[in-house]
């Protein structure tokens, strides 16, 4: 069981997604920018010009470096670009959830969380 110190300061959602997904979530109120000279945002808008290394860096930042992120939402088609990192991330916090996008269908066979559940049940 995770100690209270592990999750008590984790209060934010983060998102790595296409413009429509990120815009919708920002309009819902999840946007946050940290204070200080090295201000960090809790979202990354990915388009056709975004390098895979930028996505990987944002994923590592949200999952390893930032201690205020409780849930990371990532469009499934973007998670495919960094599938190895998504599939090997096993920490309880932040929870990494793959979400569909307007232009890409959700495929439950690719979802890392559902893959883990299937392994637990021996499928």
From TrEMBL:
Keywords in alphabetical order: Hydrogen ion transport, Ion transport, Membrane, Transport, Vacuole
Pfam family, one: ATP-synt_F
Range of residues in the leader sequence: none
Membrane topology: Peripheral membrane protein
Domain of life: Eukaryota
Location relative to the cell: Vacuole membrane
GO molecular function, one term: proton-transporting ATPase activity, rotational mechanism
Cellular component terms (Gene Ontology): fungal-type vacuole membrane; proton-transporting V-type ATPase, V1 domain
Assembly notes: V-ATPase is a heteromultimeric enzyme composed of a peripheral catalytic V1 complex (components A to H) attached to an integral membrane V0 proton pore complex (components: a, c, c', c'', d, e, f and VOA1).
Function according to Swiss-Prot or TrEMBL: Subunit of the V1 complex of vacuolar(H+)-ATPase (V-ATPase), a multisubunit enzyme composed of a peripheral complex (V1) that hydrolyzes ATP and a membrane integral complex (V0) that translocates protons. V-ATPase is responsible for acidifying and maintaining the pH of intracellular compartments.
Protein name: V-type proton ATPase subunit F
Organism annotation: Penicillium cataractarum
